[in-house]
Amino acid sequence: MHTCPMFDWEAAWHTALYGPGGFFARGEKPFSHFRTSVLVGTELAEALLELLSRVDAALGFPPVVDFVDVGAGGGELAGAVRALASGPLAERLRVTAVELGPPVDLPGVRWTTEIPGCTGLLVGHEWLDSIPCPVVTGPSDDPWITRWWPSLRAGEQAEVGAPRDAAWAAAVSSVRGAALAIDYGHLVSSRRFTLTGYRDGRQVPPVFDGSCDITAHVALDACAAAAGGDSVLVSQRDALRALGLSGDVAGSGWDWLESAARAGRIAELRDPAGLGSFGWLLHGCGVAVADLLPPLPPWSPIPASVLLP
Description:
This protein is α/β, with parallel strands linked by helices. It has one domain: 3-Layer(aba) Sandwich (Rossmann fold), CATH 3.40.50. The chain is 31% helix and 21% strand. It has 10 helices and 14 strands. The strands form 4 sheets. The chain has a 7-stranded mixed sheet with strand order 3-2-1-4-7-14-13, with helices on both faces. A 3-stranded antiparallel sheet has the order 10-9-11. Strands 5-6 form a two-stranded antiparallel ribbon. The longest helix is centred in the first third of the chain and has 17 residues, at 43-59.
């Protein structure tokens, strides 16, 4: 990695991902390089549809209800939500995928590069981790570091999460209903430098030539404070159970086999040493978070010894 003090990490990171010839700008999709919850199966979309139905009810069933997928990648989540929706909700549902890279032709999904106004549920699934940040070497007088990374020591590096905070606050401000960020990250009590790259399913050094995805853990507590309002930060493991994904196996014969396969996918989504450790930052925007999720334990990030894509 380039360590010159004058190196503009944020600009180089942005160019490597979104500039001419950048990793995502040229059409690379996450499924080719790392496994995410949306690639496990349709179960995450099922859970988010349940959450959307609760938002819909809390809003009083508006004529049009939105599902906005920010950082949509290949559109797997947006497409699954559109395909799985049924009943009166499906008739009023408008699904939007927000992505800077080339769009994918999916039935019933509209694509845009700008976050639209949303009456319903906005989801940033592994979006914030791809927003480029400045990198500083401690000690630093950067105000974000002073507040959110007080443990930074001389010689250590840190990602300054202010651009993620601003992006999330802006996204939440566009919503009437609820906004949900799903990501891996850390808290002020457990910060560590996590900038890394991914290519073809492998973790690689984060080079800024457009050859790999570049990502870093998200300071979800800082994002929550930046957006303000009524919010809760819980684990994916707990949130999925609260939305009806328990992974129980039932039936016999083929039904049992299908149930067991589904249980395996849910177990992967809820694995406390893997995807289940992701944080769910849920903001109520004109509706109460308590009407959407029951009380759940606060989120505890995955241990520092384990890094996720």
